[in-house]
From TrEMBL:
This is Sphingomyelin synthase-like domain-containing protein. GO terms for molecular function: ceramide cholinephosphotransferase activity; sphingomyelin synthase activity. The keyword Transmembrane helix applies. Pfam families: PAP2_C (PF14360). It comes from Adineta ricciae. Keywords: Lipid metabolism, Membrane, Sphingolipid metabolism, Transferase, Transmembrane, Transmembrane helix. GO terms for biological process: ceramide biosynthetic process. Belongs to the sphingomyelin synthase family. It comes from the Eukaryota. It is a multi-pass membrane protein. It is found in: Membrane. Coiled coil: none annotated. Residues 196-270 form the Sphingomyelin synthase-like domain. The keyword Metal-binding does not apply.
């Protein structure tokens, strides 16, 4: 039986002790970072937010898998007759032209819509974060229900040339592309995720509707009724444009888009969205300051926040006068004594 030398045994023990000290060092470093940057309230909020994001990630992976599994099933590929598509693209060209207004300017891709939705909510502080948290839950539940509907009954794709041949890959978000030829227009359309038979109902319209709801709610604090009205008309006009484009480009049937809009609007008012909903700690500013600037003992950040808060307060009350003052004088006349506005 071979014998292990004393030197080798001593070297192994030293290596194990070194690994143990390294682990303890990293644990201590993480605990110090947590101590300096996180408050208990922010920790609870972060853990609940991560929980909801994990559920959403699981749902999206499950959905993408089922999309491809269902698209591989044998079925009659003859498209169903879509009366709305016939009317929009053939009988009344004005609707097609309306759908493509702003295509090169303000109409962006679906992924960009998601980013803008999140960014817009962050700009509105605690209220925006609440709307964002609710939107994440609404998105998860609405898309989970969508998986059930398109899995129960397979609808043929409105484009007969669409054919998904596999293999099934949950991480593959763009299985293929299709060239669509219509009587009055010709376009090259990439599939925006999924395969061919994830139709009833549309997942894209869920994103559009939740984004429009967020803008509608958060712009209610803006000055001037005409400004609020214009913003709401603009955002919902984009939703209608995108719904028409999805139908005439043969991504979806018109019933997919209409049902997706109705389900999302109804789901937004469901009580389950409020159950244990992550709520930002109030007031939010001290928690954010400790998270981002834990060593600001001189109050430099506080002074900048005070200035920004007062500018924002002036802007909400008198937007045109505030902008004119900033342009002309690069400053605003503030009171001699100012107090930190808790945000």
């Amino acid at each position: 039986m071979p014998k292990v030398s004393h030197r080798r045994h001593h070297h192994t023990a030293q290596h194990e002790r070194g690994n143990l000290f390294s682990v303890l060092f990293h644990i201590n470093a993480i605990s110090q970072i947590y101590h300096y940057h996180m408050t208990p309230e922010m920790t609870v909020y972060a853990l609940k937010s991560i929980r909801d994001l994990v559920f959403m990630g699981i749902e999206l992976l499950t959905e993408n898998t089922m999309i491809q599994v269902i698209s591989l099933k044998a079925h009659n590929r003859t498209p169903l007759r879509d009366l709305a598509e016939e009317y929009l693209s053939n009988e009344n060209r004005s609707f097609v032209e309306f759908a493509y207004i702003g295509e090169e300017t303000y109409q962006v891709e679906t992924n960009s819509v998601l980013f803008l939705w999140i960014f817009y909510c962050f700009l509105h502080g605690p209220t925006g974060l609440k709307v964002l948290q609710k939107g994440v839950r609404c998105l998860t539940l609405a898309r989970a229900l969508r998986v059930i509907t398109f899995s129960l009954t397979i609808l043929p794709n409105p484009n007969p040339k669409c054919k998904f041949t596999g293999p099934v890959d949950p991480l593959n978000l763009s299985p293929g592309k299709v060239h669509i030829e219509k009587k009055r227009f010709e376009i090259f359309v990439p599939f925006l995720g999924g395969a061919c038979n994830d139709l009833l109902y549309s997942g894209h319209v869920i994103v559009y509707t939740i984004s429009a709801l967020a803008v509608t709610i958060l712009c209610s604090s803006y000055p001037y009724a005409i400004l609020r009205f214009f913003i709401r008309v603009f955002i919902w006009t984009q939703v209608i444009q995108r719904m028409i484009r999805a139908v005439i480009e043969l991504h979806h049937y018109s019933v997919d888009m209409f049902l997706g809009l109705c389900v999302t609007l109804l789901m937004w008012h469901a009580e389950v969205l409020y159950y244990d909903l992550p709520t930002p700690p109030q007031p939010l500013y001290p928690h954010l300051k400790k998270l981002l600037f834990p060593f600001d003992h001189d109050g430099v950040v506080d002074r900048y926040v005070e200035q920004f808060t007062l500018v924002y307060k002036h802007f909400k009350r008198q937007p045109m006068r505030t902008l004119a003052s900033l342009i002309q004088h690069h400053d605003i006349a503030f009171p001699a004594k100012i107090r930190m506005k808790q945000i």
